[in-house]
């Protein structure tokens, strides 16, 4: 059965849809050129956010919605591998700059060069994905449709309030929160890489859903968004470590064999292996540290029933048809402070990880 159209919910989603469609459109020329890795990064994030809002945009024609989701998925896939390589290359060259033991340099530099070669080969796929997206006309359709919808809603003086709106948002936030919390069981096993990967995806989906809903809650979701971004940062870097460990093991195995055949003697392999083994050991240690920090953080949140506060806010808003008293707009620094204030005893206020959570979106 088709979900009833709620004008205020349509206003919330169409604004976000238009914003992300513009963001994506602005990145495509830079993505095609391939000179600045940030274009691919921002384009990929815009695609992921579009996928999230399209799942909530039940006011759209089903055929149109299906076509849009399909094209966005193809573009996202076309940029995915390239972005992964960009992140790895950037990390490696930064890591090389801080190494004091010169005997480690050949092996790590060899890995970086191999990744750069692989990234160059992927650019043709990236360009093809951009060309296909532009030829489909989907982004233009999104912009035109969202513009018309916004004009219609503004003429009708639709506002972001009402029981129907917040009842719908309570269900959507609750669904994504439950999916995220269901995956927390994976933290019982430090080696459950697949479980941690699924938790990362669930955290990302919860974050995007909260970001879509933020304008309706007038600042009351800001602290929760900061918290889930922090968790996503942990999970993202843990996933990166898992990818590195697997990649470096393959480098020492299959590529090591190829190098032996190329150079014809083992001494060269040993010289390269020292740096690669060093990097693999560092990535393992980094993963252990990150996992322990994440585990402590999530346990403290659970002990204080932190996420119960989100359910309570969504439930109260559904009953009132508006945001409960005590809310208000907050700046980004204030939002982070609010998240620290809500943090249960035992968690010291800390800045977000140095690498943005969007690096893993």
Note down, in words, how this protein is organized:
The protein has 361 residues and is mainly alpha-helical. The chain folds into two domains: 1-159, CHAD domain (Alpha solenoid); 163-361, no CATH class. It has eleven helices and no strands. It has helices spanning 7-33, 37-56, 62-97, 105-136, 138-155, 163-182, 193-217, 222-263, 266-303, 306-320, 332-342. The longest helix is centred in the last third of the chain and has 42 residues, at 222-263. It is flat and about 75 Å long. The two termini are 32 Å apart. Mean pLDDT is 88; it is low at 327-361.
Furnish the topology, listing elements before pairings.
Layout: H1 7-33, H2 37-56, H3 62-97, H4 105-136, H5 138-155, H6 163-182, H7 193-217, H8 222-263, H9 266-303, H10 306-320, H11 332-342
Helix pairs in contact: 1-2, 1-4, 1-5, 2-3, 3-4, 4-9, 6-7, 6-10, 7-8, 8-9, 8-11
The backbone outline, from C-alpha atoms, is: flat
Low-confidence stretches: 327-361
> Mean pLDDT score, rounded?
88
Biggest sheet descriptor: none
Number of DSSP-assigned strands: 0
Order of helices and strands: HHHHHHHHHHH
From the alpha carbons, calculate the radius of gyration and give it in angstroms. 23 Å
Helix content: over 70%
Which labels suit this protein?
361 residues; mainly alpha; CHAD domain; 2 domains; flat
The gist of it:
This protein is mainly α and 361 residues long. It has helices at residues 7-33, 37-56, 62-97, 105-136, 138-155, 163-182, 193-217, 222-263, 266-303, 306-320, 332-342.
């Amino acid at each position: 059965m088709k979900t009833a159209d709620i004008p205020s919910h349509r206003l919330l989603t169409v604004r976000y849809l238009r914003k992300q469609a513009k963001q994506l459109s602005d990145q495509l020329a830079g993505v095609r050129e391939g000179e600045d890795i940030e274009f691919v990064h921002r384009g990929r994030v815009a695609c992921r956010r579009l996928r999230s809002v399209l799942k909530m945009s039940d006011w759209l024609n089903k055929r149109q919605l299906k076509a849009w989701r399909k094209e966005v998925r193809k573009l996202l896939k076309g940029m995915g591998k390239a972005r992964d390589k960009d992140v790895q290359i950037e990390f490696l060259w930064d890591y090389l700059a801080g190494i004091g033991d010169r005997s480690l340099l050949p092996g790590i530099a060899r890995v970086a060069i191999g990744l750069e070669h692989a990234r160059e080969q992927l650019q043709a796929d990236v360009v093809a994905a951009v060309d296909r997206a532009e030829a489909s006309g989907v982004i233009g359709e999104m912009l035109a449709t969202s513009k018309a919808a916004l004009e219609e809603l503004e003429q009708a003086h639709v506002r972001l309030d009402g029981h129907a709106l917040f009842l719908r948002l309570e269900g959507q936030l609750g669904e994504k929160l439950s999916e995220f919390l269901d995956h927390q069981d994976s933290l019982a096993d430090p080696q459950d890489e697949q479980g941690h990967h699924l938790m990362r995806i669930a955290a990302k989906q919860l974050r995007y859903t909260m970001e879509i809903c933020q304008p309706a809650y007038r600042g009351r979701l800001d602290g929760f968004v900061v918290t889930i971004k922090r968790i996503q940062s942990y999970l993202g870097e843990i996933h990166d470590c898992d990818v590195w460990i697997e990649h470096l093991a393959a480098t020492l195995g299959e590529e090591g064999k190829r190098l032996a055949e190329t150079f014809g003697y083992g001494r060269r392999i040993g010289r390269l292996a020292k740096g690669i083994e060093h990097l693999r050991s560092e990535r393992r240690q980094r993963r252990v540290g990150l996992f322990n920090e994440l585990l402590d953080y999530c346990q403290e949140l659970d002990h204080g029933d932190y996420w119960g506060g989100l359910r309570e806010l969504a439930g109260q808003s559904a009953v009132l048809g508006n945001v409960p008293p005590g809310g208000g707009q907050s700046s980004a620094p204030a939002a982070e402070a609010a998240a620290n204030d809500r943090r249960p005893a035992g968690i010291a206020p800390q800045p977000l990880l140095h690498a943005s959570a969007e690096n893993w979106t």
